[in-house]
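User: Hi! I'm a student and our assignment asks us to look at how structure tokens line up with a sequence. Could you show me two examples?

Assistant: Happy to help. In each example below, the sequence comes first and the structure tokens follow. Example one:
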Amino acid sequence: MLGLWIEPNEGAKLWLKVITELRNRCLADVFVICCDGLKSFPEAIEAVFPRTVVQTCIVHLIRSSTRFVAWVNRKALIRRPAPYAADTEEAALTALAEFDKRWLERYPMVAQAWRSNWERVRPFFAFGRDVRRIIYTTNAIESLNFTLRKVTKARGHFPSDEAALKLVYLGIRNMEKKKWTRQPKW
């Protein structure tokens, strides 16, 4: 957790402000960031940290692409050969081509979702399996957000931003005690 910001809405200006503030607080460099499709977030990262590898969350991409698919076909659709399970980018493109042969006529939006996000997917294949297991998803952040939504939703409205921040802080502190673990050998 690098910070908390309370803003009335989310957008390009907010993300640029957040990333710039992190840099100004001495975050010198970021190697890789996994994003879940927030508009303008990758561009803000690249503006402030131009050497950072920005990658799309594979789990979010799978979920968003399966929303175009009938429920009975979802399991068959995401089984191997799946692009995200490949060892190399070339093998992933081959898997995507095989997917096209089998499903394109029935579900053209799925392959289109992968192809339109490919520039943000391809950095994933530059890493080994151990690193991929850690960077393929934003689920750690999603888990934190879910916990914080539970804490804040029960309260409804807050008398001030400071009251909301205090409750969020306490939620994070309690979560640290229960949930967060370190990756082995890291």
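Example two works the same way, sequence first and then tokens:
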Amino acid sequence: MTDTDANRRPIAARDTGWARALASRLAATRITPNQISMASVGFAALGAGALLEWPNPAGYFICALCIQLRLICNLIDGMVAVEGGKGSPLGRIYNEFPDRITDSVFIVALGYAAGAAWLGWVGALAAVGTAYVRVFGGAVGLVQDFRGPVAKQQRMALATIGLLAAIAEYLVHAERYALIAASALIAAGSIVTCATRTRAIAACLNRSE
């Protein structure tokens, strides 16, 4: 295993037939991995905009769909770069920076839609913190740690579940309990993830003494 492989986020969907087929098709075009990474930012802006502009089942569904499209971009960009042999010197920047933007855009929008903007901002800050701790581990010579309990995939799963639950909730009453719960779980889970990753780094550094 190379250092690049060790520091690559483990994603089970990478081994599925549809993902390999899509990555192969895109690798055969002039589309670059960096462009795919930037497309995820576009989906985040579209989803967040729909959520804030239409706080109803239509907006919730569009946002949930855009979250999934964002995750597909996050999956496929690396596959086109690595398996498709189209990586670039700037690939590491495009692999990280758009993720931080899209995470924050979705999580902050979810907080505002829930009527608890502060939860969205806390969740976004904590989500960035999980990435900071992970990259810090790599900076001190350790393999980057993608453990949860609420890493990127879990954050987006919670947001998606919250949005879909909000569609059902909207048909029953006007409260936004599902969105509030999703925002709270993302914020709390991300804070716990920062702590678990920090403890793991500390343990590894202690063992290396």
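Here is something you could point out in your write-up. The two ends are 25 Å apart (CA to CA).
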